[in-house]
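For the sake of clarity, the format in which proteins appear in this thesis is described at this point. Each number in the token line that follows is a code from a learned vocabulary of backbone shapes. One such record is shown here in full, so that the layout can be seen directly:
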Amino acid sequence: MSKACNIMRLALLQLKGSKDKLANLENACNKIQEVVQEHGPRLITLPECFNSPYGTKYFREYAERIPTGTTSQQLSDLAKKCNVYIIGGSIPELGENDNVYNTCTVWSPQGQLIAKHRKMHLFDIDVNGGMRFKESDTLTAGNDFTIIEIDGHKIGIGICYDIRFEEMARIYRNAGCEMLIYPAAFNMTTGPLHWELLQRSRANDNQLFVATVSPARDETAEYVAYGHSMVIDPWAKIMKSAKEGEETIIADIDFSMVEQVRQQIPTSCQRRRDLYETSKKC
């Protein structure tokens, strides 16, 4: 593979949301077109629940069918118009049997829906003196791993709480993924503690790139997102990091670094499979 094929320009759009779905969608569409014109990325990623407030009482109200809903149609049209891949953050999806899912869509430069990831691990926590949230009150968990391939490079998709489960990341790495992308909305309790830690851990454990895309922080919202969208390299170094407000991150991903790191520190081949089995053989 040539060097040119190993470089992918990635854009992360940290967007401020509201209770106005059409305004949220218009803002996302405008930001997509701006970043295409200014930076020419190959892949653009949006935040978790970018078209709706994040809250159990809102999920069903804002839920849409995929791919026939307004949000899906807008992302499809934009991907085709801008000739770019779009990872559509996540939206509340109205699925089969009237179930509601937290779902990430992925659109090709031809405007085709090439993948759909339903959040596998629902955010049910109760931190003493901090955050209490229970997605399972209204959402149904997905059951499928999601891997997309762009220009010969495999990328695993997760949503927010999925990042806490190292087994999921390991399965993606074993399947040949070189990057993991998580649209996510950590909060002001878990964000300062674990946001950077989890991203660097997944990158270090699996020797790949990790990118996260948060909503911008809005102190007036019922659920306050932490912000700080990031790109982590296979050495577990922070390549790029946003602050709290609306911001666009541009990162040129050099996939050749993945193989370099895996060769220099070959942990995958050094596992004691005579004592435990957690991954496939080299």
In short: The mean pLDDT is 94. Helices lie at 3-6, 21-39, 56-62, 70-82, 166-174, 190-206, 256-264.
